[in-house]
Amino acid sequence: MNFLNFILSDVKKYSEVVSKVVNIDVEVMDSSFVRIAGTGNLEEKVGLSMRKESHIYHQVLKYKKTIIILNPRKDPHCSNCPNKSLCKEELEISTPIIYQDEVIGVIGLICFEKNKKYDFFIKKDLYIQFLEQIAEFISYKVYVYFSSLQLKRDNEILNSIIDRVQDIIILTNRKNQIELINKKGLNVLGKIDKNEKIILKNSSSFLN
């Protein structure tokens, strides 16, 4: 499952934020080796497969760790890259996006200009830490998305169960506002504003 596609708009937004902060092009690849976000020179390649051009990303997926390439083509990580002779990169920082202990994508800083590379070196450690934090935040957004889906399913199951009960069931919050009412309750009491406060009394009080 390509988890990142469920929060694609967020992924694109965070990519743009990173690019503006670091002043280097950013791209995000999903677990199917498809570039799902890109800035600058990489924007026109969004939607294309990266399987044949993502030598470093293959390693990131395998080892689940950030790989820092400060000297492309000369770095040991590049030794077996089939595209080494065609590479125009000046810098590459690739960080895994991990969800439930699985790498669901990679976010990378790709620099093509020497002057930007020199600017990057001034705050290198800070920028790498920032990139890793963004990767963690993207993972958190995936968690939030699927948690909300699970909560919705749980509520639907709960509603289905209480609707089968023949007694009136009303669940309220601490402010005595209705959170949930079953079909029997709606049939007897009619339409109720859920923001309306209700007062619950023991049935014996009606006999006094």
From TrEMBL:
SUPFAM superfamilies: GAF domain-like
Lineage: superkingdom: Bacteria
GAF domain mapped to chain residues: 49-139
Pfam families registered for this protein in UniProt: GAF
Protein name: GAF domain-containing protein
Naturally occurring in which organism (per UniProt): Fusobacterium periodonticum D10
